[in-house]
Structures are given as C-alpha cells and as structure tokens.
Amino acid sequence: MSLFRTLATALAALSLAAPVGAQDAAQRRLWNAPSAPFRIIGNVYYVGTAGLSAFLIADPAGLVLIDGGLPESAPQIAANIRRLGFRLRDVRYLLNNHSHVDHAGGLAALQAATGAPLVSSAGDRADLVAGRTIGREDLDRFPPIRPARTIGEGGTIRVGRTILTAHLTPGHTDGATSWTLRTQDKGRPMTILFLSSLSVAGRPLVRGTPPRETKAVAEFRSTFRRLATMHADVMLSYHAEQFDLPAKRRSLAAGNRLAFVDPGELPRYVGAARRAFEEELARQRRTPQS
Length: 290
Prior knowledge:
The structure is a single chain. The protein is α/β, with parallel strands linked by helices. The protein has a single domain, classed as Ribonuclease Z/Hydroxyacylglutathione hydrolase-like (Metallo-beta-lactamase, Chain A). The protein has 9 helices and 14 strands. The protein has helices at 3-14, 22-31, 74-83, 101-104, 107-114, 122-130, 215-228, 245-253, 265-286, and strands at 38-41, 44-46, 55-59, 62-66, 91-95, 118-121, 149-151, 156-159, 162-168, 177-185, 188-194, 206-207, 212-213, 234-236. The longest helix is centred in the C-terminal third of the chain and has 22 residues, at 265-286. It is globular and about 60 Å long. It starts with a helix and ends with a helix.
C-alpha cells in the first residue's frame, strides 16, 4: 500500500470521531496550508504546515519527529520528510508537545506510516489514549494513539549521538512537555528548546462558589519558574506566530544562517506568557466558571 493511501485510510477510519464547526474548519484550513520543509539549524528541520510546527531531528542512526499537527496534516508532514530526502521508516521515535488536536491529531497516521513508537509524558497519556483532551468537551477529538513509553522530568530519548531531554512544562495541559537538544552548527555549540504552549487557551483556572483555583494555576506557576532557569540559543514552538517563523524563515532564505539564534527570545516570551496568564487568572477570579 502506498504511503498516501496508508495515511488516507487511517484518517478516513478515524475522521467520524472529530466533528468540526464551520469557524473551526476555517481555522484548520489556515493552519494546514502547505509549507515547504527546510533546515532550521544543525540537524533540526522544519517539516510542519504553514501554521503548525513539526520538527525532524536527524542523526545518522535515525530520525526523531516531534508533533503531528492536525489529523489532516499527516500526509503533508510525511511528504515533507520525504522531500528532504529522508525515509519514513528511519523515524525511531514520535514525540508530542501536548495532547490537543492541533498537535496530536496526526500522530496515529504518522505512526502507521513510520512504525515508530510514541513517547509522551504521564500527564498527557490518558488524553492520547482516549483521543481527546479529557475534561475539555469544547475541544475537538483526534485519532487515539497509545504511547509505548512515558517520560518524566529530565528523561532522555537517544538516537545515535543525538539526545533529547524532556522538561515537564504543564499548564496548557497536565502533561505539556518541552524538549532540549544540544547540537552544533558548523562547530558552534547550540542549545535548542522545543517549547510547549504556555497559553491558558480557555482552560479553567478558577471554579466554584466560593471561587477556588484549579490545579492548572500551580502547574503554570511551576512551569514559569522552571523556564526562568533555562537557557536556549534557539527557541522553537508549535504555532508559527509563537516564534515568528515567517520572518525568521525569510531571513534564513536571504542568507542569514543564524536567523533562528536569539538567546533573549526565551525570557521575553516566557515573561509575556506569564503576564497573560496573570491577567487571565484575574479575569477568571472576577467571573469564575461553575
């Protein structure tokens, strides 16, 4: 069976579980617009769509793929990997930054195409197995996938000489996970951070009468504290606008080999995310959810 037939079959079998409203469908089309793959820096490649990131880390011993976009993103991600000259069967691991449809949706089809096991945090495992973000009926379902292994803070994935380290950064979901990679670009050492989402995105922070903070508040605050201690030469994330992907890509195409290098980006981004979180917490304290 061809690659695209394999992916199409998997998607067709699972698509009935994911109804989408008209407005959501329009957003999904924008996110899933095509994007040519390219090398970001070192052994890290962009293989995602125009709006949703997927990253490929290449080692002579095999490949690691982080994130699968939407269910309908899987064929494009697979095609992008092949367009770069890599083979799907050389993918050794699938990783996921968090268990929402726009990042976990394509994982099941990509697993069918690559045969690679999925590694996830314990906090998001139940969501991935269920094919939905448990407790968030406002979010779309996605094709379920069972992680072969769960990983905790400081756990590592190794392929050849490439080592990815997990950092638990919950809040956006209970198991949101960021990853660091130490690599080199033309002999220059680099720390790359694949940063999970830090937005509240409708998650309840305050509930009940009298209003009480949910566990998400402590999760976000622990994440902000952890990230404040971290350094990254390159910060990558999972929506194009979160790390100014279009502008950096244009700069790279114009000859700036270090377009994605900005050690100040992580503290700026985390500071802005913390302020947005505190504003949303204050708003929910005024009008708590039931």
